[in-house]
Write a structure and sequence with these properties.
The chain has 287 residues and is an all-alpha fold. It has 2 domains: 145 residues, no CATH class; 128 residues, no CATH class. The chain is built from 10 helices and 2 strands, in the order ααααβαβααααα. It is elongated. The relative contact order is 0.10. InterPro entries: K_chnl_dom.
Amino acid sequence: MGWWIAVLGVLVVLLALRDIFHTLWHPTRRGGVSRLVMAALWRVSRWVGGKRVAGVVGPLGMLAVVSMWGLLLVVGWALVYLARMPDGFAFDPGLRPEDRSNVLDSFYLSIVAVGTLGYGDVVPVDGWLRVVSPLQALVGFVLLTAVVSWVLGSYPALGRRKALARRLAILHEVDSEAPQPPVVWGASTLESLASEVIRARVDFGQYPETYYFFDDDAGQALPLWAPYAYRMACRMRSEGEGEVRPAAAVLERALADLARTLDLHFLHTEGSPEVVFDRYREEHARR
């Protein structure tokens, strides 16, 4: 019976490691369980409504994902230890194994190991356990450093997205204040915007959790300005002259590519870029 408990623990650990790998290191950056957690919190925030709730979904979602990884690792290794508790372990002379709870000691040892604390009052004596316990400490250390890198990478991606949105908001203000005929952006402006849009598209692929960050500043909210940018790119591609027309075509393609990425991973409308961007705006709208 003890071996079945150990096998179950190994499966739980493998589930956690697979999700960590796919979220943090796999080229697609698509963890299964972590993605479900973030999406579930986002849906709850839409149901509850309000900017204050939406504003904490992204950070809270990342915290929930990291907590889930830690919990799975603790539970998985605790089950492995439970299969050999107490016979496979040596206890400090002040501890009486017969007076202790095998379940609590298994979880205690697992928490100590994953936190790389190493108190030493309960130590494995079985040969394979003497390998498993340090391995858990190594995984805990790797998880800590990986999570720090994850957070430090996500927030610069958010900054780039806000900068793009702010630039589009300023261009909209200039367009609104200009007399007729409609303003035509220069080729250099279109090309630089295309570069920023491409960077935003890559950021959504590398840091998909940033989709669930809500910005209550309208001037920095890309969902609000992406539809406007696409309409302007389409108009300038058809009405522009000289270098403006090919530059506008590049921006239009970049925005269409961004729309495909959003639709494939988050929105699932299977519609045109206009439909996707309108849905993107609705998804991030809050009272």
